[in-house]
Design a protein that fits this description.
- This protein is an alpha/beta fold and 619 residues long.
- The protein has 3 domains: 8-199, Thiamin diphosphate (ThDP)-binding fold, Pyr/PP domains (Rossmann fold, 3-Layer(aba) Sandwich), CATH 3.40.50.970; 213-376, 3-Layer(aba) Sandwich (Rossmann fold); 399-578, Thiamin diphosphate (ThDP)-binding fold, Pyr/PP domains (Rossmann fold, 3-Layer(aba) Sandwich).
- Helix content is 41%, strand content 14%.
- The chain contains 22 helices and 17 strands.
- It is globular.
Length: 619
Amino acid sequence: MNPPADDLHSAWAQLFAAALTQCGVAQAVISPGSRSTPLALALADHLPTTLLHDERVAAFFALGQARASGRPSVVLATSGSAPGHWLPAAMEAHEAGLPLVLLSADRPWEAQQAQSSQTVDQQRLFGLHARACFELGLPDAHPAALRALQRIAAQAVLATRYPQAGAVQVNAHFRKPLEPQPTSGTEPWRARVQALARAGAPRLQAPLAQPHPDAVALLVERVRAAPRGLVVAGPMPAGHGGALRAALARFVAASGYVLLAEATSQLRFGLAAPGDGAACIGAFDALLREPALRRRLQPDLALEIGAPAVSAQWLAWLEGDEAPPRWVLPGERPADPAGGAQGMLLGPVAALLDAVAAALEALPGSPDRAAAVRYAADWQRAEAAAWLARQQAVERADRTLLHEHEVAPALRAALPRDAWLAVGNSSPVRDLDHDLPPDAVPLHVLHQRGVAGIDGGVAGAAGARSAGAAPLALLLGDTALLHDAGGLAAAAAVDGPLVIVVVHNDGGRIFERLPLGRDPAMAAVRERLFVAPHGRRFDGLAATWGMDHVFASTPAALQQALARGLSATRPLLIEARVAAGGSSLRAGLLAAMAQAAAAALDLSPAPPAAPLPTHADAR
């Protein structure tokens, strides 16, 4: 325990910290500093606390806690440039819809506009990237100010969730002395503070979100008129998995629609076994590379749920002349990067699908159920042929070297039921979709898809682990690890099992998959300015933070390292050094999958399979 809050500064901070806790803040992440002293002492008294020196790392760590738990954490920094390092995390929280309280300590009003040290204008520091901003003046003993202090804490926590989740800034001013000070104990404000502390913070409750009846009726009408239908599931929060899987399975059974699920949708793993009507299609990015398959599998209607799909082939299809008619169910925020959707139905996705399924169940059978059955059978035959072709191609490859396409399957096989998998952007998230067929074993997938950046991946995974996500593995590339090298300090601060698997192909090899990578004239400049090979190993970096490190360059070595890390009590960094030429091998695998699927449907693929032109970026 810290010294008693005898002075007004300390009592003010204690009252505010208690209110945050009472309103649902789960944990505190603190970066050391002087101006934030009263708040640091108070937060440490009321919340589980993690200390991280790097403010950027601290904010992504707190964001990882929110991503895993669904509850907001509070991150605290001192005045000046320190809170400015939170901007990337604030941007991610805004775009991903994750709750986060950014508590910035500030100087008093007389220090502003006077070239005072460590003093900048911190009001609305994050602009449109913060859902709301609250200013706390200097600690004030007036009864109205003391009451407002608790109310603002409650409002700030509510604003991290409603009307749209995201980061909220609270800027708190303090004047020296900042450390606890002895007092006489007879100050007139003391009784008021004690009474407010006993009463606790006011309760602010967001309204319960329910699907609009008109949205349910409209979707029922559209689905019944379009028997050949798809549900395309993009990234969604891990906490929605159970309810979403149940609602989606019910909707698929009632509608006959086919589910195309990305790995980050929470729907690819844990549905019914393959062959069951509720099973999903996982190879659709590969299948859509073949024109004959696109024509054969054209739906009457597509429903997009969650965030926009990562699949470049799906996006390119939507941007082309043969785009299928579709409606978007994005959750709480509009989402249609391709444009052209017939409409959007905002609100809770699981509740909307469940209500539509119930309405469909109460109506007579589909006007053309036979067409839906034939359409689903086509997708299932193509899916089975694609994964079989991939397996056969892998078995023919050199087994003495570790290839990129082997890392995700090895990791999936090692993770137990209901484990957590965090995945980085760029190549790793796409490799999950290209390398992991759907299965019936539940898996929680964490993905930093809000802004789709490669920064903060290690810190975010460490934060998720600290919030109780266990066992947890992180899959990311070597460039992403370099971007978040400081995040290893956060990883070292938590207990295992936390396995960080770095796919080391010496640079940003995803640029080899983009149009830039297919132009021989650009080879030299691509390698120098975009792939940017660095030639570094990471054993020394792991040693800096006292972390164990394993170098794995064969499938057997990777399997052994994964088994070790998932049974350990400390984090483990696995440097998976993969064979050169991964981009060309990946292209060959995807082409083989598409061609095999076309053959399974008695179609004539174009040799070689021709993917849709796409300008998808590297993240």
